[in-house]
Amino acid sequence: MLPDFVVIGGMKCGSTSLLRYLNYHPDIILPRNIKNLEFFDEKENWNKGLNWYESFFPKEKNKGQVFGEVSTEYTKHPDTNNVAKNLAKTIPNAKLIYVIRHPYKRLISHYIHQVGAGLEQRKINTILRNIDNMYVRYSLYGYQLEQYLDFFSPSKILVLTSEELRRDKDKALSRIFRFIGVDESFKVGNNVSLNTSAERKKWNSIGRLIRRSSRNYNAYCYYKNKYPRSMRIADLLLCSAVNVDSLSKESKEKISPLFIEDIKKIEDTFGLDLSGWSFDEV
Length: 282
What we know:
By secondary structure, the protein is α/β, with parallel strands linked by helices. The chain has two domains: 5-195 and 251-270, Rossmann fold; 201-241, no CATH class. It is 45% helix and 10% strand. It contains 13 helices and seven strands. The protein has helices at residues 15-24, 50-54, 83-90, 103-116, 124-127, 134-137, 141-149, 162-167, 169-180, 205-212, 214-226, 228-238, 249-270, and strands spanning 5-9, 28-29, 66-70, 95-100, 157-161, 201-203, 239-241. Helix 2 links the parallel strand 2 and strand 3. 35% of the residues are buried. The mean pLDDT is 88.
């Protein structure tokens, strides 16, 4: 069977924490231990066919259950190919969830992620001399949603902020549960906390080998989600701290107008109030 909802991102906006929260709800079924199936992207797994995708979900659904997937790769336009079109064609009635975060913070967190994975050696302010880069593009949430609004009405897309999840987890999750049609009164409790451990870590050579293997990395993520305290020891063995420069005044002056204009699109389309996102300080 196919999923009823898809969390389409965003990357470094709390999707891993949301995955943990959703897994606790008894009526929500997600692919076990797997994030980022990347099926709808023609550059990734689209050519594997629908049977491949359906194999990650149960063949039958119990009363009241909903199926879903979490894939931050689905809001990385234009570095993906026809994601929204393929998703709409495959699951026309899908409900979409998009978690967003202050653009500066998402951008910096993404940069740290790349440095930690050994994929980025440049300084952040050097990169931002040219604003046409993935760190900026993936932080333009209105721009990312444009591809989906060609196929889905705004009522089919729930946009919420990672700040909401952090400030009042139960209230934010209640909104999500109501949106996807499961018991909104269910409480996750304090079993799961918002993921912050990956913010400033750099993988050593062994850690990078684990990351390169999807099976090993999915296993690492599974045990990290299930036994977060115990896995801190593994993090100490596999990772070291990452130190990065702050955004310069020149960088902020260059990218802030883009973000402010983009946020206005989100507010107008989805009736959000993001006035709490200051662009003076981060």
